[in-house]
Specification:
Number of helices: 15
Mean pLDDT: 89
Helix content: 25-40%
Oligomer: single chain
Shape: globular
Strand content: 15-25%
Number of strands: 17
Radius of gyration: 25 Å
């Protein structure tokens, strides 16, 4: 161990300020309920315990205490996805809750309960929604209030995750809280939201600046209090005649996200939703809906640029089983045609797309085949096929050369 590191830790251990002595916490993933997304955004954790024991596990889903930005055009399923994910994240934890800043107010309570899969009692006790009087300032106050309440009674929220960090230490976290802002484009400072008339470009600039300060101030609070913050935003075309360079890779030239760029740069995940071909109840899977491509514009746990095709059923939201089916299909693991499809090499278990979910629910052997093949496909998302091993070519050791040059300049 470095002498400086040893002495630094020894010194800060005497401090009464927890902020001074704290070190980076090991991240934990919370499954969203959609394995195609969770593995696409997941990573493998390698653990070496103090006794030399080594093992690994898959850390999948949304990382604790992070911000997730979701963009896409209207009707592509952004809010539906976030609502379903929020319900799945908090469900296992008795003291978890969802705080929804619903400025756009686009979903009825009945629809919310359906997407969250909550009873009426659960909905009242675990979900708080606000759809009026929302400003940048009081939104910050509410986030800070959640942060303070959890830290003041840490023992009421802390739990053993059952997971280990890379050095074999058990990981403890506060039970997750989900905050949803729908949408960043509609969040305005108090002085502007109270104006009788539109204030034009100066107001837009002022709004972007204040919202930038908001995000910068709440990011440190998210991690320590384990608040998972979903920011829903619009994807707008550039009105200028000459399209500007895209704000970030994987957005098209000229496309922009209102509300400032901080929501992009400080996000742990930046997700793009693109709806494409429609689904008709008379064919395919027997549902009315659309296919939605979910693209990892940015991820701090896996490679950016990956995407998965998910099935958005208008009646019930995103479908986890049908989305897994699409993953198998895209990887060439669904064979046959028409009413004679089969998974992998199991041509003794044929089915049609329209009858797929029915067969999944009624045939245990078929269900097991689907599960086993799905996990093979998911591992490809988590651990992409390695590139060819590097050839044993001579490599220039620039660090050694630089050190040698410095040494030559130092007089003996």
């Amino acid at each position: 161990m470095s002498l400086l590191v040893h002495n630094f830790r020894k010194t800060v251990a005497k401090s009464k300020d927890l902020r001074i002595k704290s070190e980076a916490e090991f991240s934990v993933g919370y499954p969203t309920g959609y394995l195609v997304f969770d593995f696409m955004n997941g990573t493998k954790v390698e653990v070496t315990k103090s006794d030399g024991t080594k093992f690994s596990y898959n850390s999948i889903g949304i990382v604790d205490g992070t911000m997730v930005s979701c963009v896409g055009r209207s009707g592509c399923g952004k809010t539906t996805f976030v609502m379903q994910v929020a319900g799945n994240i908090i469900r296992p934890f008795p003291n978890s809750a969802i705080f929804h800043e619903d400025i756009e107010g686009g979903i009825s309570d009945m629809r919310k309960r359906q997407l969250l899969k909550m009873t009426e009692e659960e909905f009242k006790s675990r979900y708080i929604c606000r759809n009026t009087g929302i400003t940048t300032e009081n939104f910050f106050q509410r986030i800070k209030m959640i942060h303070d309440l959890k830290l003041e009674s840490r023992e009421d929220y802390e739990y053993d995750t059952g997971l280990y960090d890379a050095e074999g230490n058990r990981i403890f976290k506060l039970q997750p809280t989900v905050v949803i802002l729908d949408s960043l484009a509609m969040l305005m400072p108090e002085n502007i939201s109270d104006m009788d008339e539109l204030a034009g470009s100066m107001a837009a600039t002022s709004t972007a600046k204040l919202n930038t300060q908001l995000i910068k101030r709440i990011i440190p609070m998210l991690k320590v209090a384990n608040i998972i913050f979903f920011v829903i935003n619009h994807l707008l075309p550039d009105p200028s005649l000459v399209p500007k360079k895209a704000q970030v890779a994987w957005l098209k030239p000229g496309e922009r996200c209102p509300g400032g760029e901080t929501a992009i740069y400080l996000a742990n995940n930046f997700l793009r939703f693109d709806d494409n071909s429609k689904l008709n109840a008379e064919d395919t899977f027997g549902v009315d809906g659309i296919y939605v491509d979910v693209l990892l514009v940015k991820s701090r746990t896996n490679n950016a640029g990956k995407s998965v095709k998910m099935v958005f059923d208008y009646a019930n939201g995103f479908d986890p089983e049908l989305s897994l089916f699409m993953l198998l299909k895209d990887q060439g693991r669904i064979n046959g045609s028409g009413a004679y499809l089969y998974i992998g090499n199991r041509d003794d278990k044929k089915f049609s797309q329209r009858k797929f979910k029915e067969k999944l629910a009624t045939d245990p052997e078929f269900s097991q085949i689907f599960i086993e093949e799905s996990f093979k496909a998911l591992e490809v998302l988590l651990n992409p096929i390695e590139a060819e091993k590097e050839k044993e070519d001579y490599k220039l050791d620039t660090t050694s050369i630089m050190l040698q040059m410095m040494k030559e300049k130092i007089p003996a």
